[in-house]
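Customer escalation, tier 2.

The customer says the design service returned an amino acid string that "doesn't look like it belongs to this structure." They asked us to rerun it and document both sides in this ticket. The original structure tokens are below, unchanged.
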């Protein structure tokens, strides 16, 4: 049996640091918007504080739950069943910004697609542990994963939420690759997926506009290119040291959703290159510690859980930061731990709690 160790302190402290930054930056980015739209400058701050408290409490609980619990078939199938029903039910909810992604409860939105990431990781990790010795047998190992992921991705696309659907697919791909799948299968799947991704992207007019705006935002600076241009202005005017906390300009009704999708742009403007780099380094540290935990996990199940949860945070952070810097087309994906939004924050903190529990059982040698 692996030697019992304490939780990974570096991972824990980095997570707490990002949550603390979230409280500060959500208030800075949303105070004027909250005052103008709702007459309450502290509205988003109070919500984020509530979700942060709930998420940290759940993380503390999950840290004490043996990660082997998540390999139990009853738990896995119950999780998948609940998530699937929620994804179907949310399609009948009232649309918000032309999308049906949230359940509204007491004025608070809950996003089932975030829970789908956790349920998928539980399922894939348990299945790979049992079948990784025959990972190259498509019908035995890959087909069950493909069916489950296809159903969840299909339901998420119907919301529509292209960014989260792609993120879920990438999480599954990384976990399967880590199990030793022959690179030819990975390459073949990627080539086969490209036409489907292209069709999905071009099937919706707003996605086409986003892609064209990404290629040349100045062609329509007041329309489809507005978001990217304003984000780049925010990042560029921040300089090395930044304008100072609360002194950002682009958040004042120039940047769309400055407290959610484009909070990294606000950080870059107010805290400068140093602040933006520090945030980026925090996510690099989380990725490093997560992969380190995977290498030291006492069994394959723990390793796959660690890889999936680390990928979940790393991919989401990469996409959000890339969008803010104009390196990717605009996607409605929040920055983990930092952006305003309860579902993403709570799910990310639960994921870190599971990862910290795996670290408690980790071997002292990589």
């Amino acid at each position: 049996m692996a030697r019992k160790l304490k939780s990974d302190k570096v991972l824990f402290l980095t997570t707490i640091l990002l949550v603390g930054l979230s409280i500060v930056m959500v208030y800075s980015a949303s105070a004027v918007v909250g005052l103008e739209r709702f007459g309450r400058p502290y509205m988003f701050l109070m919500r984020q504080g509530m979700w942060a408290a709930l998420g940290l409490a759940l993380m503390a609980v999950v840290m004490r739950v043996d990660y082997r619990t998540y390999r139990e078939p009853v738990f896995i199938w119950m999780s998948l069943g609940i998530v699937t029903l929620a994804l179907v039910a949310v399609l009948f909810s009232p649309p918000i910004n032309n999308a049906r992604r949230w359940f509204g409860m007491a004025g608070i939105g809950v996003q089932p697609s975030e829970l789908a990431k956790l349920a998928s990781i539980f399922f894939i990790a348990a299945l790979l542990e049992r079948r990784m010795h025959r990972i190259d047998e498509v019908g035995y190992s890959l087909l069950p994963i493909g069916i489950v992921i296809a159903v969840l991705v299909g339901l998420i696309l119907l919301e529509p939420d292209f960014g989260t659907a792609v993120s879920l697919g990438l999480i599954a791909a990384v976990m399967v690759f880590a199990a030793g799948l022959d690179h030819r299968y990975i390459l073949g799947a990627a080539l086969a997926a490209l036409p489907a991704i292209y069709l999905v992207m071009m099937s919706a007019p707003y996605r086409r506009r986003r892609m064209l705006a990404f290629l040349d935002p100045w062609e329509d600076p007041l329309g489809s290119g507005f978001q990217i241009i304003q984000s780049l202005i925010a990042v560029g005017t921040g300089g090395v040291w930044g304008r100072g906390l609360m002194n950002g300009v682009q958040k004042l009704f120039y940047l769309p959703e400055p407290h959610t999708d484009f909070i990294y742009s606000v950080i870059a403007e107010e805290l400068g290159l140093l602040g933006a780099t520090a945030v980026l380094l925090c996510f690099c540290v989380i990725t490093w510690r997560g992969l380190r935990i995977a290498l030291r996990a006492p069994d394959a199940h723990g390793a796959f859980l660690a890889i999936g949860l680390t990928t979940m945070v790393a991919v989401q952070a990469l996409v959000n930061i890339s969008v803010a810097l104009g390196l990717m087309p605009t996607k409605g994906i929040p920055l983990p731990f930092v952006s305003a939004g309860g579902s993403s924050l709570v799910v990310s903190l639960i994921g870190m709690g599971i990862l910290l529990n795996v670290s408690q059982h980790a071997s002292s040698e990589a």
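Tier 2 assessment: The sequence is consistent with the input. Residues 263-296 form the longest helix (34 residues). The mean pLDDT is 88. Sent an explanation to the customer and offered a walkthrough call.
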